Amino acid sequence: MSDDLKHECGIALLRLRHPLDFYAKKYGTSAYGFSKLSLLMEKQHNRGQDGAGIACVELDVQPGRPFYHLEKSCASTPLADLLEKVSAKMGDAEQRQAFCGEVYLGHLRYGTYGKRTMEACHPMVCESPRRNRTILAAGNFNLTNTASVFQHLVELGYHPRGHQDCEILLDLLAHYLEACNGNLLQAVKETASSWDGGFVIGGIVGDGNAFVFRDAAGIRPAYYYVDDEVVVVASERVAIQTAFNLRSQDVQELPAGHLLSIPVQGKVALHRCLPEAPIRHCVFERIYFSRGNDAEIQQERRALGRAVVPQVLEAIDHDYDHTVFSYIPNTAQISFHGMLDALDECRDGHRLRFGMVAVKDAKFRTFISDANHREELFPHVYDVTYGLVNPGEDNLVVIDDSIVRGNTMRRAILPILDRLEPKRIVIVSSAPQIRYPDCYGIDMASFGELVAFQACMDLLQERNMQSRFDEAVAQAEKELAKADKDMVNVAAQLYALFTEDELTEAICRRLLPDNLNAELKVVFPTCADLRRCIPNHTGDWYFTGNYPTPGGNRVVNQALLNYAKHINERAY
């Protein structure tokens, strides 16, 4: 993806089901658990580059010694720094020193809305003098109603340590664990019943009982695997497959609204902890976030590339002979392969020309403090391959995963592609127009940053329809006085004023850099295309405004008010 899109976190929970001596004898080390957790986290490093943390609980430890160990990092390369720190603390693993235990919880953090500090890193701990009331937790989530949950804690007599949703969640869970006399399932039911949002929460109680639970709509992903030796949970199926050399069918999806309990004694079990709700798995997980070597994700992304081919052919006037096809590195490569498959099927003997035209300089950094010099260097984050495009003759088609803000496309990618002197550049998004902010953990919270909304505002102004925006803002303010379940998404009414083609043309004008010599066209698939390609992930609120929880409509209406306030302040 060309835009710098912060997104979901990643978790990994590992429970060893035998004493450490078993693993020392079979695998040659009692640090087997830490080794596997490290691999699970390495294989999910794409999910978090702002922080990382590991917690370890020992089951058989004498009083006087710590029963849990916790280490975090928010260094520039947090995971590498974290693993180095933990390895150093372990010392001689055969002596069962720090971090050589039976239960592990790892977390990779992307700083979406919160601080990028050590205190914001997971796992977090709520301590108690009693082991069975101490809780360590980490999650991949965002709540839409943190303020009301915070107030609930205050009313219970607590003084919350901060406003981070993980801290608030942990305090509330600790309260209900005490109130429910240590009944973990009941404590989770009581705690999560008041939440609105998308979440996967993993935790370890100090006595070694572990758990993972997922929101009722299944917004955030979670997978698990159980055998005689281990119980493992991760945000991505393929990470578990790689770490334990498994087939896809060996790894199960954690059902929405369920808690996976991993007791010290007894069977691993699934329990429903939230009422049944419509399943709305996040579709962006499949388009961009998760690693593309998952078998199903590979097929889905290829299908997205195939879906746009009819529009692509129309954009190039079906001129195969004078068109070069390429992609924006790196995650759009799979969709590109699907696009090539479909193009090959209908080329009718014409030569199919393709290659890696855009090259991202992964090591490029801008250290110059002067803003003007930074602007000059910014386009060179990308480079191009010369000699593939015939100047003045060829079309250049380039596919990207999605277009969110469009800044990098306008300021870096298009100017550098224009150096090849194509007669026409066609930018293809494998995802539909991103029209709405997210409130479940992905950094798309501002209307002002979404190029599709900016294009909508352009059309309102061009057609002297600004009054419709004012009416929508007034209605949004009225909606916010209602209960969440009674609200409607007011912003959807603004988009409904225009056709998809009109918005696409307006987005194209927004993306157009100054002095671009080539003609520019932009292609988006429809939401119907998306549903055909990824039928099992219907969490498409980014594109449709159909939010999976009641709090979503409150967030989108508030975002509209925030945008209007910003416009008014800027005008003033």
Question: What features would you describe in this structure?
Answer:
The chain has helices at 20-27, 32-42, 78-90, 146-155, 165-179, 184-192, 237-244, 284-289, 295-307, 309-315, 333-345, 371-377, 407-418, 451-462, 466-479, 491-495, 500-511, 527-533, 541-544, 550-571, and strands at 10-16, 51-57, 68-73, 103-109, 124-126, 135-143, 197-205, 210-214, 223-226, 230-234, 252-253, 258-262, 269-272, 323-327, 353-354, 358-360, 382-384, 395-400, 424-429, 519-523. Helix 11 links the parallel strand 14 (323-327) and strand 15 (353-354). The chain has two domains: 10-279, Aminohydrolase, N-terminal nucleophile (Ntn) domain (Glutamine Phosphoribosylpyrophosphate, subunit 1, domain 1), CATH 3.60.20.10; 297-466 and 498-548, Rossmann fold (3-Layer(aba) Sandwich). The radius of gyration is 25 Å and the shape is globular. The protein has 20 helices and 20 strands. Residues 365-371 have low confidence and may be disordered. It has a seven-stranded antiparallel β-sheet, with helices on one face. The protein has a six-stranded antiparallel β-sheet with strand order 5-6-7-8-12-13. A five-stranded parallel β-sheet has the order 15-14-18-19-20, sandwiched between helices. With 572 residues, it is an alpha+beta fold.
Mind sketching the topology for me?
Blueprint: E1 10-16, H1 20-27, H2 32-42, E2 51-57, E3 68-73, H3 78-90, E4 103-109, E5 124-126, E6 135-143, H4 146-155, H5 165-179, H6 184-192, E7 197-205, E8 210-214, E9 223-226, E10 230-234, H7 237-244, E11 252-253, E12 258-262, E13 269-272, H8 284-289, H9 295-307, H10 309-315, E14 323-327, H11 333-345, E15 353-354, E16 358-360, H12 371-377, E17 382-384, E18 395-400, H13 407-418, E19 424-429, H14 451-462, H15 466-479, H16 491-495, H17 500-511, E20 519-523, H18 527-533, H19 541-544, H20 550-571
Parallel strand pairs: 14-15, 14-18, 18-19, 19-20
Antiparallel strand pairs: 1-4, 1-10, 2-3, 2-4, 5-6, 6-7, 7-8, 8-12, 9-10, 9-11, 12-13, 16-17
